[in-house]
Write a structure and sequence with these properties.
Elements: H1 15-20, H2 26-40, E1 46-48, E2 66-68, E3 81-85, E4 91-99, H3 103-117, E5 124-125, E6 135-147, E7 152-163, E8 169-180, H4 186-212
Parallel strand pairs: 1-4, 2-5, 2-6, 3-6
Antiparallel strand pairs: 3-4, 6-7, 7-8
Helix pairs in contact: 3-4
């Protein structure tokens, strides 16, 4: 006859195992509850989109196919947050608002649309469209913020037209636009930055279409 093992009469975990399970202190539970409520408090930020100018561009034409690359930018412009620059070049993010996508990708999409709206649809494409390009339009976002001291929205981009076959830069230029902003809040800041970007995008399209490519 087999001997009976010493099992606890109450079903489930043995008594030794039960004693080894640590108990969560009430203070830790209270801290976790406070952090969870703090993270969930407050309304979500308002999401803003950027628009592409729909203006037709008269005169000039793009000779060959142009591929519009995604603009490069330093880390501070890579996020979706709306940037505010204060005195002594201090940088902060405007609470309560954000862009609809990463800023470089959003600017690239609106730049392509500006070319399309300007009746230059056949000559412009994105990387990855399997188009044999003649020129590559590279750009960099140098500024895309609210200048709190001046009360202006500032957008600055550098653009380079590169011969895709030789790799040589055929032309380069810096485009800047400043638009007054009445109040530094998410709505007014986003609208002012959108207007400033529209000026820059339209000037880039005009520049590329006047024989510089």
């Amino acid at each position: 006859m087999r001997s009976r093992s010493a099992l606890p009469r109450s079903g489930g975990v043995p008594a030794t195992a039960a004693r080894s399970i640590p108990l969560v202190r009430p203070l830790a539970v209270a801290v976790l509850t406070t952090l969870a409520s703090a993270c969930s408090s407050g309304p979500p930020p308002t999401t803003f989109d950027l628009t592409a100018p729909r203006q037709k561009v008269q005169g000039g034409s793009i000779e060959g196919q142009v591929v519009v690359a995604e603009p490069v930018a330093i880390q501070v412009f890579e996020a979706e947050r709306i940037l505010v620059k204060g005195a002594a070049n201090t940088v902060s993010f405007l609470g309560g608002g954000q862009w609809a996508d990463r800023l470089p990708r959003l600017v690239q999409a609106r730049l392509v649309q500006t070319f399309e709206n300007a009746s230059r649809l056949k000559a412009v494409s994105r990387p990855g469209d399997r188009i044999t390009s003649d020129y590559l339009l590279n750009s960099e976002i140098r500024a895309f913020q609210i200048d709190a001291a001046a009360g202006e929205a500032v957008v600055e981009m550098s653009a380079k037209v590169v011969n895709d076959r030789s790799g040589r830069i055929t032309n380069a230029r810096v485009f800047t636009a400043r638009v007054p902003v009445a109040t530094i809040d998410p709505v007014n800041a986003a609208q002012a930055l959108d207007r400033a970007l529209s000026i820059v995008l339209l000037n880039i399209v005009r520049w590329v279409g006047t024989g510089h490519a």
